[in-house]
Design goal:
Shape: globular
Mean pLDDT: 96
CATH architecture: 3-Layer(aba) Sandwich
Low-confidence stretches: none
CATH superfamily: NAD(P)-binding Rossmann-like Domain
Largest sheet: 7 strands, parallel
Helix content: 40-55%
Strand content: 5-15%
Radius of gyration: 18 Å
Length: 260
Amino acid sequence: MVLKGKTAIITGSTSGIGLGIAQGFAKEGINVVLNGFGAADEIEKERAGLEALGVKAVYNGADMTKPGEIVAMVEEAREQFGSVDIIVNNAGIQNVQPVEEFPPEKWDAIIAINMSSAFHTVRTAIPYMKKAGWGRVINIASAHGLVASPFKSAYVTAKHGIMGFTKTVALEVAQNNITCNAICPGYVLTPLVEKQIPDTARARGMSEEQVKNDVLLAAQWTKKFVTVEQLAGTALFLCSDAAENITGTHISVDGGWTAA
């Protein structure tokens, strides 16, 4: 399968993992719909950078807590590009607090953005993929979709939910030449992770350096942070012919975290 000319919607792709995947896709000739928050000039810089690689790239600022905006984003991509071939559900936020102190509004936002938004992108895109006879759904889960950590009740819940959603969708579309898989990264030094380091330090009574070495990398046996380039490569593999019979499962890119 030649990926050049395919169209991918990548949620939460104005920075971090999502942007890394967008850049990896663009290098292979895949048109990209960027989505996420940030300064308009910075987003435009990244969008133009993708087009400099020879693809068409557009930005859609759909709010992942609003189903109507998510549906509109998918529909607009279909109108602009003629197809929606690949969905990468990557949008995510985090909050680190003990469960008894966890603000209900933070819980609701994390469940909406990290889990429910994937349902809305997929339910809208699947009919187009079925009509085209090809599609790839890639859900960016987490090592926390397989194991838990304290003080992250909403995040762990959402990522476990994404794993179940991945399996169910895969079974439903298995005979339509559409696959649905999850990627489970360990810690990547994205803005999301960097922002949670001070919160984790406060919650655990540690220094920020201790959090990096004794919390974040403690579980990653390689003692290396995962890179966005590695995740982009994994996503591209899941779009390839070699992965045609890989569906309803996950690939862990976590430095051995979940092997222990």
